[in-house]
Amino acid sequence: MGILKLYNTLSRRVEEFKPLNDNEVGIYTCGPTVYDYAHLGNLRTYIFEDILRRVLEYNGYKVKHVMNITDVGHLTSDADEGEDKVEASAKRAGRSAWEIAEFYTQAFFRDTERLNILRPHIVPKATEHIADQIALIKKLEEKGYTYRTSDGIYFDVSKFPDYGKLAGQSLEEKKAGARVEVNPEKRNPADFALWKFSPKDKKRQMEWDSPWGVGFPGWHIECSAMSTKYLGQPFDIHCGGVDHIYTHHPNEIAQSEAAEGVKMANFWMHGEFMVVEGRRMGKSEGNAYLLDDLIKRGYDPLAFRYLCLNTHYRIQLNFTWQALEGAQTALERLREHVRNARARGGDPAQGKIPPDVHRKFLEAINDDLNVPQALGVVWDFVRSHQDPSDKLAALFDFDRVFGLKLSEVRAEEPIEIPQEVRELVAQREAARKAKNFQEADALRVKITELGYEVIDTPQGPKLKKRR
Ligand code: AMP
Ligand code: ZN
After folding, report:
1. Rounded to two decimals, what is the model's pTM?
2. Residues near ligand 1 with C-beta < 6 Å?
3. Which residue, judged by its Cα, is nearest atom 11 of ligand 1?
4. Nearest to 177 by CA among 159, 190, 191, 160
5. Ligand 1 atom index nearest CA of 45
6. How high is the mean pLDDT in each 10-residue block of the chain (467 residues)?
7. CA-CA distance, 446 to 453, in Å (whole number)?
Protein backbone atom coordinates (compact mmCIF):
# COMPACT_ATOMS: atom_id res chain seq x y z
CA MET A 1 0.00 0.00 0.00
CA GLY A 2 1.42 3.39 -0.96
CA ILE A 3 1.17 6.50 1.17
CA LEU A 4 -2.06 8.30 0.39
CA LYS A 5 -2.06 12.02 0.99
CA LEU A 6 -5.23 14.10 1.07
CA TYR A 7 -5.96 17.76 1.64
CA ASN A 8 -7.89 18.23 4.86
CA THR A 9 -9.98 21.40 4.99
CA LEU A 10 -9.92 21.14 8.78
CA SER A 11 -6.16 21.57 9.04
CA ARG A 12 -5.75 23.40 5.72
CA ARG A 13 -2.91 21.03 4.91
CA VAL A 14 -2.19 17.96 2.84
CA GLU A 15 -1.99 15.12 5.36
CA GLU A 16 -1.15 11.46 5.23
CA PHE A 17 -4.36 9.49 5.32
CA LYS A 18 -4.60 6.87 8.03
CA PRO A 19 -7.89 5.05 8.48
CA LEU A 20 -9.50 4.79 11.90
CA ASN A 21 -10.00 1.07 11.52
CA ASP A 22 -7.50 -1.33 10.07
CA ASN A 23 -9.03 -1.91 6.75
CA GLU A 24 -12.36 -0.23 6.38
CA VAL A 25 -12.78 3.40 5.51
CA GLY A 26 -16.05 5.19 6.21
CA ILE A 27 -16.96 8.11 3.97
CA TYR A 28 -20.01 10.31 4.12
CA THR A 29 -20.90 12.60 1.25
CA CYS A 30 -23.76 15.10 1.28
CA GLY A 31 -26.28 14.00 -1.30
CA PRO A 32 -28.77 15.79 -3.52
CA THR A 33 -31.84 17.73 -2.52
CA VAL A 34 -34.37 16.03 -4.74
CA TYR A 35 -36.60 18.85 -5.92
CA ASP A 36 -35.03 19.25 -9.37
CA TYR A 37 -32.44 17.67 -11.67
CA ALA A 38 -28.79 17.74 -10.62
CA HIS A 39 -26.80 20.16 -12.80
CA LEU A 40 -23.31 19.61 -14.17
CA GLY A 41 -21.77 21.48 -11.21
CA ASN A 42 -23.44 19.16 -8.71
CA LEU A 43 -22.35 16.20 -10.83
CA ARG A 44 -18.75 17.40 -10.80
CA THR A 45 -18.81 17.13 -7.01
CA TYR A 46 -20.24 13.59 -7.15
CA ILE A 47 -17.54 12.62 -9.65
CA PHE A 48 -14.84 13.96 -7.32
CA GLU A 49 -16.29 11.90 -4.46
CA ASP A 50 -16.47 8.84 -6.70
CA ILE A 51 -12.79 9.29 -7.57
CA LEU A 52 -11.94 9.52 -3.88
CA ARG A 53 -13.72 6.23 -3.25
CA ARG A 54 -12.04 4.57 -6.21
CA VAL A 55 -8.59 5.76 -5.14
CA LEU A 56 -9.16 4.38 -1.65
CA GLU A 57 -10.24 1.07 -3.17
CA TYR A 58 -7.27 1.07 -5.54
CA ASN A 59 -5.08 1.39 -2.45
CA GLY A 60 -6.65 -1.76 -1.07
CA TYR A 61 -9.09 -0.27 1.41
CA LYS A 62 -12.58 -1.56 1.82
CA VAL A 63 -14.81 1.48 1.64
CA LYS A 64 -18.20 2.02 3.21
CA HIS A 65 -19.77 4.96 1.45
CA VAL A 66 -22.91 6.63 2.80
CA MET A 67 -24.75 9.40 0.95
CA ASN A 68 -28.01 10.96 2.10
CA ILE A 69 -31.00 11.96 0.02
CA THR A 70 -32.49 15.23 1.21
CA ASP A 71 -36.16 14.71 0.45
CA VAL A 72 -37.59 17.18 2.92
CA GLY A 73 -37.07 20.46 4.63
CA HIS A 74 -34.27 22.11 2.66
CA LEU A 75 -35.45 25.70 2.76
CA THR A 76 -34.78 28.15 -0.01
CA SER A 77 -32.24 30.06 2.07
CA ASP A 78 -29.43 29.01 4.37
CA ALA A 79 -31.03 31.18 7.05
CA ASP A 80 -33.82 28.63 7.56
CA GLU A 81 -36.33 30.90 5.94
CA GLY A 82 -38.41 30.64 2.80
CA GLU A 83 -40.23 27.72 1.29
CA ASP A 84 -39.32 24.06 1.51
CA LYS A 85 -37.79 23.35 -1.91
CA VAL A 86 -39.46 19.96 -2.30
CA GLU A 87 -42.93 21.25 -1.40
CA ALA A 88 -42.48 24.30 -3.63
CA SER A 89 -41.45 22.14 -6.58
CA ALA A 90 -44.46 19.86 -5.95
CA LYS A 91 -46.77 22.85 -6.01
CA ARG A 92 -45.33 24.03 -9.33
CA ALA A 93 -45.68 20.60 -10.90
CA GLY A 94 -49.11 19.83 -9.46
CA ARG A 95 -47.74 16.68 -7.83
CA SER A 96 -47.34 15.51 -4.26
CA ALA A 97 -44.11 16.25 -2.45
CA TRP A 98 -43.52 12.50 -2.14
CA GLU A 99 -43.90 11.99 -5.89
CA ILE A 100 -41.51 14.85 -6.64
CA ALA A 101 -38.87 13.47 -4.27
CA GLU A 102 -39.15 10.00 -5.78
CA PHE A 103 -39.04 11.30 -9.35
CA TYR A 104 -35.86 13.37 -8.85
CA THR A 105 -34.20 10.65 -6.80
CA GLN A 106 -34.60 8.28 -9.74
CA ALA A 107 -33.43 10.98 -12.16
CA PHE A 108 -30.35 11.50 -10.00
CA PHE A 109 -29.45 7.82 -10.10
CA ARG A 110 -29.99 7.67 -13.83
CA ASP A 111 -27.50 10.53 -14.27
CA THR A 112 -24.91 9.11 -11.90
CA GLU A 113 -25.13 5.71 -13.58
CA ARG A 114 -24.55 7.29 -16.97
CA LEU A 115 -21.44 8.90 -15.50
CA ASN A 116 -20.29 5.57 -14.11
CA ILE A 117 -20.38 6.92 -10.56
CA LEU A 118 -20.45 3.96 -8.18
CA ARG A 119 -23.59 3.87 -6.11
CA PRO A 120 -22.90 4.50 -2.41
CA HIS A 121 -23.35 1.41 -0.26
CA ILE A 122 -26.00 3.07 1.87
CA VAL A 123 -28.32 5.82 0.62
CA PRO A 124 -30.53 6.86 3.53
CA LYS A 125 -33.45 9.23 2.99
CA ALA A 126 -34.13 12.02 5.45
CA THR A 127 -37.85 11.18 5.57
CA GLU A 128 -37.06 7.62 6.63
CA HIS A 129 -34.92 8.78 9.55
CA ILE A 130 -37.15 11.25 11.35
CA ALA A 131 -36.97 9.33 14.65
CA ASP A 132 -33.14 9.38 14.56
CA GLN A 133 -33.17 13.11 13.97
CA ILE A 134 -35.63 13.74 16.81
CA ALA A 135 -33.49 11.62 19.14
CA LEU A 136 -30.42 13.70 18.27
CA ILE A 137 -32.24 17.00 18.82
CA LYS A 138 -33.43 15.69 22.19
CA LYS A 139 -29.88 14.90 23.16
CA LEU A 140 -28.81 18.42 22.24
CA GLU A 141 -31.71 19.84 24.20
CA GLU A 142 -30.76 17.82 27.28
CA LYS A 143 -27.22 19.12 27.03
CA GLY A 144 -28.45 22.71 26.85
CA TYR A 145 -27.53 23.60 23.28
CA THR A 146 -31.02 24.50 22.05
CA TYR A 147 -33.68 27.14 22.48
CA ARG A 148 -37.17 27.64 21.24
CA THR A 149 -38.55 30.46 19.07
CA SER A 150 -42.02 30.91 17.65
CA ASP A 151 -41.10 28.98 14.51
CA GLY A 152 -38.81 26.22 15.72
CA ILE A 153 -36.07 24.76 17.88
CA TYR A 154 -32.67 26.33 17.26
CA PHE A 155 -29.04 25.45 17.95
CA ASP A 156 -27.20 28.12 19.92
CA VAL A 157 -23.76 28.31 18.28
CA SER A 158 -22.33 30.50 21.04
CA LYS A 159 -22.46 27.39 23.28
CA PHE A 160 -20.15 25.52 20.92
CA PRO A 161 -16.75 27.25 20.94
CA ASP A 162 -15.36 25.18 18.04
CA TYR A 163 -18.04 26.42 15.65
CA GLY A 164 -15.67 28.21 13.31
CA LYS A 165 -12.90 25.60 13.11
CA LEU A 166 -13.74 24.25 9.66
CA ALA A 167 -14.16 27.59 7.95
CA GLY A 168 -11.24 29.09 9.87
CA GLN A 169 -13.57 31.87 10.88
CA SER A 170 -14.44 33.12 14.34
CA LEU A 171 -18.07 33.75 15.22
CA GLU A 172 -17.32 37.46 15.23
CA GLU A 173 -15.98 37.25 11.68
CA LYS A 174 -18.94 35.19 10.56
CA LYS A 175 -21.30 37.70 12.15
CA ALA A 176 -19.63 40.58 10.35
CA GLY A 177 -20.06 38.82 7.01
CA ALA A 178 -23.67 37.80 7.63
CA ARG A 179 -26.52 39.12 5.56
CA VAL A 180 -29.26 41.23 7.08
CA GLU A 181 -30.78 39.27 9.93
CA VAL A 182 -34.18 37.95 8.96
CA ASN A 183 -35.23 36.21 12.13
CA PRO A 184 -35.10 38.61 15.11
CA GLU A 185 -35.78 35.76 17.52
CA LYS A 186 -32.43 34.14 16.81
CA ARG A 187 -29.79 34.79 19.45
CA ASN A 188 -26.86 34.74 17.00
CA PRO A 189 -26.95 35.11 13.22
CA ALA A 190 -25.25 31.73 12.80
CA ASP A 191 -27.84 29.87 14.89
CA PHE A 192 -29.79 27.40 12.80
CA ALA A 193 -33.00 25.42 12.99
CA LEU A 194 -32.99 21.83 14.23
CA TRP A 195 -36.75 21.48 14.02
CA LYS A 196 -39.21 23.79 12.29
CA PHE A 197 -42.89 24.00 13.21
CA SER A 198 -45.46 23.62 10.48
CA PRO A 199 -47.04 26.99 9.73
CA LYS A 200 -50.31 27.43 11.61
CA ASP A 201 -52.31 28.60 8.64
CA LYS A 202 -51.09 26.03 6.11
CA LYS A 203 -51.08 22.24 5.98
CA ARG A 204 -47.74 20.80 4.93
CA GLN A 205 -47.58 17.55 2.97
CA MET A 206 -44.54 16.34 4.85
CA GLU A 207 -44.78 16.82 8.59
CA TRP A 208 -44.33 14.75 11.73
CA ASP A 209 -45.12 14.78 15.40
CA SER A 210 -42.30 15.65 17.74
CA PRO A 211 -41.82 16.48 21.42
CA TRP A 212 -41.86 20.17 20.39
CA GLY A 213 -44.89 20.16 18.09
CA VAL A 214 -45.82 19.11 14.56
CA GLY A 215 -43.22 20.08 12.01
CA PHE A 216 -40.20 18.91 10.05
CA PRO A 217 -36.45 18.65 10.60
CA GLY A 218 -34.01 21.45 9.82
CA TRP A 219 -31.80 20.80 6.82
CA HIS A 220 -28.54 20.02 8.65
CA ILE A 221 -29.69 17.55 11.27
CA GLU A 222 -30.21 14.62 8.88
CA CYS A 223 -26.52 14.44 7.98
CA SER A 224 -25.46 14.34 11.63
CA ALA A 225 -28.07 11.73 12.53
CA MET A 226 -27.51 9.47 9.54
CA SER A 227 -23.71 9.63 9.31
CA THR A 228 -23.37 8.60 12.95
CA LYS A 229 -26.00 5.90 12.59
CA TYR A 230 -24.25 4.19 9.68
CA LEU A 231 -20.59 5.06 10.21
CA GLY A 232 -20.24 5.71 13.94
CA GLN A 233 -18.41 8.71 15.33
CA PRO A 234 -15.78 9.68 14.51
CA PHE A 235 -15.66 8.35 10.97
CA ASP A 236 -12.92 8.79 8.39
CA ILE A 237 -13.85 11.26 5.65
CA HIS A 238 -16.67 13.72 5.09
CA CYS A 239 -17.08 15.42 1.70
CA GLY A 240 -19.10 17.98 -0.16
CA GLY A 241 -18.75 21.02 -2.38
CA VAL A 242 -16.77 24.07 -1.20
CA ASP A 243 -19.98 25.99 -0.47
CA HIS A 244 -20.57 23.66 2.47
CA ILE A 245 -17.43 24.87 4.25
CA TYR A 246 -19.19 27.93 5.64
CA THR A 247 -22.63 26.86 6.83
CA HIS A 248 -23.79 23.31 6.29
CA HIS A 249 -20.67 21.51 7.47
CA PRO A 250 -19.96 23.74 10.49
CA ASN A 251 -23.58 23.11 11.49
CA GLU A 252 -23.15 19.36 11.11
CA ILE A 253 -19.99 19.53 13.22
CA ALA A 254 -21.72 21.58 15.90
CA GLN A 255 -24.65 19.13 16.14
CA SER A 256 -22.60 15.93 16.11
CA GLU A 257 -19.74 17.05 18.31
CA ALA A 258 -21.96 18.80 20.85
CA ALA A 259 -24.11 15.68 21.13
CA GLU A 260 -21.38 13.03 21.29
CA GLY A 261 -18.46 14.94 22.74
CA VAL A 262 -16.07 13.50 20.14
CA LYS A 263 -14.85 14.60 16.74
CA MET A 264 -17.31 14.02 13.89
CA ALA A 265 -14.87 13.10 11.11
CA ASN A 266 -11.10 13.02 10.73
CA PHE A 267 -10.88 14.40 7.21
CA TRP A 268 -13.05 17.02 5.55
CA MET A 269 -12.66 17.26 1.80
CA HIS A 270 -14.33 19.76 -0.51
CA GLY A 271 -14.63 19.85 -4.29
CA GLU A 272 -14.25 23.21 -6.03
CA PHE A 273 -17.00 24.69 -8.14
CA MET A 274 -17.76 24.27 -11.75
CA VAL A 275 -18.12 27.79 -13.11
CA VAL A 276 -19.39 29.41 -16.28
CA GLU A 277 -17.50 32.54 -17.26
CA GLY A 278 -16.28 32.99 -13.73
CA ARG A 279 -19.67 32.54 -12.06
CA ARG A 280 -20.59 29.46 -10.06
CA MET A 281 -22.87 27.16 -12.01
CA GLY A 282 -26.17 27.07 -10.15
CA LYS A 283 -29.89 26.82 -10.66
CA SER A 284 -30.46 30.25 -9.19
CA GLU A 285 -27.69 31.72 -11.38
CA GLY A 286 -29.55 30.63 -14.51
CA ASN A 287 -26.40 29.10 -16.01
CA ALA A 288 -26.94 25.47 -15.07
CA TYR A 289 -26.72 22.78 -17.72
CA LEU A 290 -28.03 19.28 -17.21
CA LEU A 291 -26.52 16.01 -18.32
CA ASP A 292 -29.49 15.62 -20.66
CA ASP A 293 -28.61 18.91 -22.42
CA LEU A 294 -25.20 17.54 -23.13
CA ILE A 295 -26.55 14.21 -24.39
CA LYS A 296 -29.03 16.03 -26.64
CA ARG A 297 -26.10 17.83 -28.24
CA GLY A 298 -24.56 14.46 -29.04
CA TYR A 299 -21.97 14.20 -26.25
CA ASP A 300 -21.15 11.03 -24.42
CA PRO A 301 -21.75 11.37 -20.64
CA LEU A 302 -18.32 9.82 -20.13
CA ALA A 303 -16.80 12.74 -22.06
CA PHE A 304 -18.11 14.94 -19.25
CA ARG A 305 -16.53 12.56 -16.77
CA TYR A 306 -13.23 12.86 -18.65
CA LEU A 307 -13.54 16.65 -18.56
CA CYS A 308 -13.85 16.50 -14.77
CA LEU A 309 -10.95 14.07 -14.42
CA ASN A 310 -8.74 16.49 -16.29
CA THR A 311 -8.96 19.26 -13.69
CA HIS A 312 -7.83 18.75 -10.11
CA TYR A 313 -10.78 18.74 -7.71
CA ARG A 314 -9.46 21.72 -5.74
CA ILE A 315 -9.33 23.95 -8.82
CA GLN A 316 -12.35 25.64 -10.35
CA LEU A 317 -13.43 24.11 -13.63
CA ASN A 318 -14.74 26.52 -16.23
CA PHE A 319 -17.36 24.78 -18.33
CA THR A 320 -17.28 25.44 -22.09
CA TRP A 321 -18.59 23.39 -24.98
CA GLN A 322 -15.18 23.63 -26.56
CA ALA A 323 -13.53 22.04 -23.53
CA LEU A 324 -16.17 19.32 -23.59
CA GLU A 325 -15.45 18.72 -27.27
CA GLY A 326 -11.75 18.35 -26.41
CA ALA A 327 -12.59 15.87 -23.66
CA GLN A 328 -14.73 13.84 -26.03
CA THR A 329 -11.90 13.71 -28.59
CA ALA A 330 -9.41 12.65 -25.93
CA LEU A 331 -11.75 9.93 -24.67
CA GLU A 332 -12.29 8.71 -28.23
CA ARG A 333 -8.50 8.52 -28.71
CA LEU A 334 -8.08 6.48 -25.56
CA ARG A 335 -10.79 4.13 -26.81
CA GLU A 336 -8.97 3.95 -30.12
CA HIS A 337 -5.85 2.76 -28.28
CA VAL A 338 -7.94 -0.01 -26.72
CA ARG A 339 -9.50 -0.96 -30.07
CA ASN A 340 -6.14 -1.10 -31.79
CA ALA A 341 -4.54 -3.10 -29.01
CA ARG A 342 -7.41 -5.56 -29.14
CA ALA A 343 -7.24 -5.75 -32.94
CA ARG A 344 -3.55 -6.56 -32.62
CA GLY A 345 -4.40 -9.54 -30.44
CA GLY A 346 -3.65 -7.90 -27.10
CA ASP A 347 -4.71 -9.87 -24.04
CA PRO A 348 -4.81 -7.97 -20.75
CA ALA A 349 -4.33 -11.19 -18.76
CA GLN A 350 -0.98 -11.72 -20.51
CA GLY A 351 0.18 -8.12 -20.21
CA LYS A 352 2.39 -6.53 -17.58
CA ILE A 353 2.22 -2.99 -16.34
CA PRO A 354 5.77 -1.62 -16.46
CA PRO A 355 6.72 -0.98 -12.80
CA ASP A 356 7.84 2.61 -13.34
CA VAL A 357 4.56 3.45 -15.08
CA HIS A 358 2.61 1.87 -12.26
CA ARG A 359 4.63 3.76 -9.68
CA LYS A 360 4.09 7.09 -11.41
CA PHE A 361 0.37 6.44 -11.69
CA LEU A 362 0.08 5.56 -8.01
CA GLU A 363 2.16 8.55 -6.95
CA ALA A 364 -0.13 10.85 -8.90
CA ILE A 365 -3.45 9.57 -7.56
CA ASN A 366 -2.06 9.33 -4.03
CA ASP A 367 -0.88 12.93 -4.18
CA ASP A 368 -4.24 14.37 -3.12
CA LEU A 369 -6.03 12.70 -6.04
CA ASN A 370 -3.94 14.26 -8.80
CA VAL A 371 -5.94 12.61 -11.56
CA PRO A 372 -4.89 15.08 -14.30
CA GLN A 373 -1.31 14.00 -13.67
CA ALA A 374 -2.35 10.33 -13.68
CA LEU A 375 -3.95 10.90 -17.08
CA GLY A 376 -0.66 12.40 -18.24
CA VAL A 377 1.12 9.22 -17.16
CA VAL A 378 -1.34 7.18 -19.18
CA TRP A 379 -0.95 9.29 -22.32
CA ASP A 380 2.86 9.10 -22.16
CA PHE A 381 2.59 5.37 -21.76
CA VAL A 382 0.11 4.61 -24.56
CA ARG A 383 2.03 6.81 -26.98
CA SER A 384 5.42 5.28 -26.25
CA HIS A 385 4.68 1.67 -25.45
CA GLN A 386 4.06 -0.89 -28.15
CA ASP A 387 3.04 -4.19 -26.62
CA PRO A 388 -0.76 -4.47 -26.98
CA SER A 389 -1.21 -6.81 -24.00
CA ASP A 390 0.74 -4.48 -21.70
CA LYS A 391 -1.29 -1.58 -22.95
CA LEU A 392 -4.57 -3.27 -22.17
CA ALA A 393 -3.34 -4.47 -18.78
CA ALA A 394 -2.34 -0.95 -17.76
CA LEU A 395 -5.36 0.84 -19.21
CA PHE A 396 -7.84 -1.51 -17.60
CA ASP A 397 -6.07 -1.43 -14.26
CA PHE A 398 -5.86 2.38 -14.17
CA ASP A 399 -9.45 2.61 -15.31
CA ARG A 400 -10.50 1.24 -11.92
CA VAL A 401 -9.78 4.82 -10.84
CA PHE A 402 -10.81 6.75 -13.98
CA GLY A 403 -14.06 4.85 -14.46
CA LEU A 404 -14.20 5.45 -18.22
CA LYS A 405 -15.42 1.92 -19.02
CA LEU A 406 -12.38 1.24 -21.20
CA SER A 407 -12.62 -2.51 -20.79
CA GLU A 408 -16.01 -2.39 -22.48
CA VAL A 409 -14.51 -1.05 -25.70
CA ARG A 410 -14.41 -3.82 -28.33
CA ALA A 411 -12.08 -4.21 -31.30
CA GLU A 412 -14.77 -3.08 -33.69
CA GLU A 413 -17.71 -1.28 -32.27
CA PRO A 414 -20.71 -3.18 -33.58
CA ILE A 415 -23.36 -0.66 -34.52
CA GLU A 416 -26.95 -1.40 -35.29
CA ILE A 417 -27.83 0.05 -38.64
CA PRO A 418 -31.48 0.52 -39.50
CA GLN A 419 -32.76 -1.14 -42.65
CA GLU A 420 -33.56 2.23 -44.23
CA VAL A 421 -29.96 3.38 -43.88
CA ARG A 422 -28.57 0.12 -45.24
CA GLU A 423 -30.74 0.47 -48.32
CA LEU A 424 -29.55 4.03 -48.89
CA VAL A 425 -25.94 2.87 -48.60
CA ALA A 426 -26.57 0.16 -51.21
CA GLN A 427 -28.23 2.68 -53.54
CA ARG A 428 -25.31 5.04 -53.09
CA GLU A 429 -22.86 2.27 -53.95
CA ALA A 430 -24.84 1.52 -57.09
CA ALA A 431 -24.87 5.22 -58.03
CA ARG A 432 -21.13 5.46 -57.50
CA LYS A 433 -20.48 2.40 -59.63
CA ALA A 434 -22.62 3.97 -62.36
CA LYS A 435 -20.50 7.13 -61.91
CA ASN A 436 -23.63 9.05 -61.02
CA PHE A 437 -21.83 11.14 -58.42
CA GLN A 438 -24.49 13.75 -58.04
CA GLU A 439 -26.98 11.15 -56.91
CA ALA A 440 -24.37 9.48 -54.72
CA ASP A 441 -23.79 12.76 -52.93
CA ALA A 442 -27.50 13.38 -52.46
CA LEU A 443 -27.79 9.92 -50.93
CA ARG A 444 -24.90 10.66 -48.60
CA VAL A 445 -26.73 13.75 -47.35
CA LYS A 446 -29.81 11.62 -46.68
CA ILE A 447 -27.75 9.10 -44.74
CA THR A 448 -26.17 11.93 -42.75
CA GLU A 449 -29.59 13.29 -41.93
CA LEU A 450 -30.51 9.89 -40.49
CA GLY A 451 -27.53 10.15 -38.16
CA TYR A 452 -24.83 8.11 -39.93
CA GLU A 453 -21.62 8.95 -41.67
CA VAL A 454 -20.34 6.96 -44.64
CA ILE A 455 -16.62 6.43 -44.81
CA ASP A 456 -15.33 4.96 -48.07
CA THR A 457 -12.55 2.47 -47.49
CA PRO A 458 -10.71 0.12 -49.86
CA GLN A 459 -12.89 -2.65 -48.40
CA GLY A 460 -16.05 -0.78 -49.26
CA PRO A 461 -18.22 1.76 -47.44
CA LYS A 462 -18.20 1.80 -43.65
CA LEU A 463 -20.73 3.45 -41.42
CA LYS A 464 -20.19 5.47 -38.28
CA LYS A 465 -22.83 6.89 -36.01
CA ARG A 466 -22.77 10.66 -36.07
CA ARG A 467 -22.82 12.64 -32.85
P1 AMP B 1 -27.29 20.64 -3.52
O2 AMP B 1 -28.23 19.67 -4.19
O3 AMP B 1 -27.57 22.07 -3.86
O4 AMP B 1 -27.20 20.41 -2.02
O5 AMP B 1 -25.84 20.38 -4.10
C6 AMP B 1 -25.30 19.11 -4.21
C7 AMP B 1 -23.80 19.16 -4.18
O8 AMP B 1 -23.29 19.89 -5.31
C9 AMP B 1 -23.23 19.84 -2.95
O10 AMP B 1 -22.14 19.08 -2.47
C11 AMP B 1 -22.78 21.20 -3.45
O12 AMP B 1 -21.70 21.68 -2.70
C13 AMP B 1 -22.36 20.87 -4.86
N14 AMP B 1 -22.41 22.01 -5.81
C15 AMP B 1 -23.37 22.95 -5.96
N16 AMP B 1 -23.07 23.80 -6.98
C17 AMP B 1 -21.89 23.40 -7.49
C18 AMP B 1 -21.04 23.84 -8.57
N19 AMP B 1 -21.34 24.90 -9.32
N20 AMP B 1 -19.89 23.16 -8.81
C21 AMP B 1 -19.57 22.07 -8.06
N22 AMP B 1 -20.33 21.60 -7.04
C23 AMP B 1 -21.47 22.24 -6.75
ZN1 ZN C 1 -24.64 17.19 4.78
Report:
1. 0.88
2. 30, 32-33, 41-42, 44-45, 240-241, 243-244, 271, 273-274, 280-282
3. 241
4. 190
5. 22
6. 91 97 93 95 98 98 97 72 82 89 97 98 98 98 97 96 90 66 85 93 90 95 98 98 96 98 98 95 92 94 98 98 96 95 95 97 98 98 94 98 96 74 91 90 89 76 74
7. 10
